[in-house]
Design a protein that fits this description.
Blueprint lengths: L1 H23 L3 E7 L7 E2 L5 E2 L1 H13 L1 E7 L2 H9 L5 E5 L9 E9 L2 E5 L9 H6 L5 E4 L6 H12 L3 E4 L2 H9 L5 E4 L1 H7 L3 H4 L2 E4 L7 E8 L5 H16 L2 H10 L1 H6 L8
Parallel strand pairs: 1-4, 1-5, 8-9, 8-10
Antiparallel strand pairs: 2-3, 5-12, 6-12, 7-10, 7-11
Helix pairs in contact: 2-9
Length: about 270
């Protein structure tokens, strides 16, 4: 019996450093998937990445102790993996009742979609109602994207008339639009702001605000199954401290400028 007790004591002593390391890490290692989209996450000519989401995640890591192992994925695959409990976490997601069954969302900015139309769009197509009334006009969307209450209702009606084309990502969607295979697409300021700086694209596009009352909350998406409430709360505390001390707005400003950064402030409830 003494020998057995001694063995357990030795094993216990050997486990202490590992336990201490886990405790000191604060949150441990988490697999996180980014997706490329405008100012949220983009690559430079040298192949390095930058963006709002990257800066937010790095600051959350610093404040929470969570260590993120990051990958680049398509938005469609990210949602599938989160739903199937094969991914820990992603970024800038829009909560819905269905998604909240498998993920918790920690909001960090709010925005809304604008519509991008061709410069030669007929006058009657410059409003939601006018566009819907012309059965020859088509819209392009990214698969699995939500666009806000007013736009989603409008797109649903277009689906019923078989006037919607789907793309896997925004680059594919933009190609459809510039090739005039669709007459309209929707984009957030974090997407159209850097896009409109490109002169060759700017002169082909007009930007309209069809849903000024919409507000679409985006948050960190964290698996309820794979990430404990304790770890989710650590990240929640980090995000809210970043909002309170102005860090979030500084990050937004760095990528989209002062005006849009102010509009992106999330001022809704905290959970």
């Amino acid at each position: 019996m003494k020998l057995i007790a001694l063995v357990f004591l030795i094993l216990g002593l050997h486990s202490i450093p590992a336990l201490a390391a886990e405790f000191n890490s604060g949150c441990g290692s988490i697999q996180l998937a980014y997706y490329e989209l405008g100012a949220l996450y983009y690559h430079h000519a040298d192949g390095s990445y930058a963006g709002i989401d990257k800066d937010v995640v790095e600051e959350v890591s610093r404040r929470s102790g969570c260590k993120f192992e990051t990958v680049l994925e398509s938005r469609v695959r990210i949602w599938a993996q989160l739903k199937n409990n094969t991914l820990d976490m992603s970024v800038s997601g829009i909560p819905t009742p269905e998604r909240e069954k498998f993920a918790e969302f920690i909001p960090y900015f709010s925005t809304r979609n604008y519509v991008l139309l061709h410069r030669d769009m007929p006058a009657h197509g410059l409003s939601m109602a006018g566009f819907l009334a012309d059965t020859n006009l088509k819209v392009g969307v990214i698969k699995s994207f939500k666009h806000g209450p007013q736009f989603d209702e409008w797109v649903e009606k277009l689906w019923g008339q078989k006037r919607v084309h789907e793309a896997s990502d925004f680059d594919s969607l933009l190609r459809l639009f510039l090739a005039k295979r669709v007459d309209a697409i929707m984009a957030l300021p974090t997407v159209w702001e850097p896009l409109m700086k490109k002169e060759d694209i700017n002169r082909q596009i007009q930007l309209l605000d069809w849903a000024p009352q919409d507000s679409i909350v985006h948050g960190l998406i964290i698996s309820r199954e794979r990430i404990s409430k304790t770890r989710r709360d650590l990240m929640k505390k980090a995000i809210y401290s970043m909002a309170d001390d102005g860090t979030l707005e500084q990050i937004f400003t760095r990528h989209v400028g002062n005006k849009l950064a102010r509009e992106m402030r999330y001022e809704g409830p905290r959970y």
